[in-house]
Amino acid sequence: MNKSSECVYRFKDAVYFNITNECPNSCVFCIKRKWDMQFMGHNLALGAPPPAEEIISALDAELKRAPAREAVFCGYGESTMRLETLLAVGRAAKALGLKLRLNTVGLGNLVNGRDITSDLAEVLDCISISLNSADPGQWKQLVRPLKKYEAEGFGSVLEFIRLCAAKIPETVVTAVEDPAVDMRLLEATAGQLGAKFRARPALGENGPEG
């Protein structure tokens, strides 16, 4: 890994885990290319994926500098693509008394070839699942999944939301604000699946330094 890159970084009163740059989607609103893998003064461009031990050590060092309200799996990649690392780091974070959240595109079951929601429920207090549209065609246009996930992707995300809502204390469906997207339908869909809903602003206007 590039020594200047960060597998653990701080934003506001939380610490964030940046454990992979891989993602099954290439969303039209993703800022990682526009911001050249930078985020608010942090370099999130990883070389080799950091091992769990390195991430846990970086977390310990960060918490010695200042306490944190929660820890969040959210870098410039999809954390469920490194499930075992996510779980190992999650257990360590929970042992330190941290509330733990995962921000995800919701394709973890499809990526791993099995239902991973029970594994996630062992460590997570909250999961935020980026759906972005309740229409399968529009979903595909907005999140641009890799070809191997196109056919089953939308249905898999809906099932992932339903399973998470039954197991994880706080399950939230999110969508980037877009006038072309039916936010009311998204909120209704989230409710039908047992989840809360939150619209989030599009990023990119202020640049990586905020």
Instruction: Note the overall shape.
Output: globular
Low-pLDDT runs of 5+ residues are: none
> Which sequence of strands runs across the widest sheet?
1-2-5-6-7-8-9
Radius of gyration: 16 Å
Give the SSE string: EEEEHEHEHHEHHEHE
Put the structure in a nutshell.
The chain is α/β, with parallel strands linked by helices and 210 residues long. It is 35% helix and 19% strand. It is built from 7 helices and 9 strands.
Can you describe what's shown?
The structure is a single chain. It is built from seven helices and nine strands; from the N terminus they run E-E-E-E-H-E-H-E-H-H-E-H-H-E-H-E. The chain has helices at 52-65, 83-95, 108-112, 117-121, 136-143, 147-165, 183-192; strands spanning 8-11, 14-17, 38-39, 42-43, 70-73, 99-104, 126-130, 170-176, 196-200. The strands form two sheets. It has a seven-stranded mixed β-sheet, covered by helices on one side. Strands 3-4 form a two-stranded antiparallel ribbon. Helix 1 (52-65) runs parallel beside helix 2 (83-95).
List keywords for this structure.
single chain, 210 residues, alpha/beta, 7-stranded mixed β-sheet, two-stranded antiparallel ribbon, 7 helices, 9 strands, globular
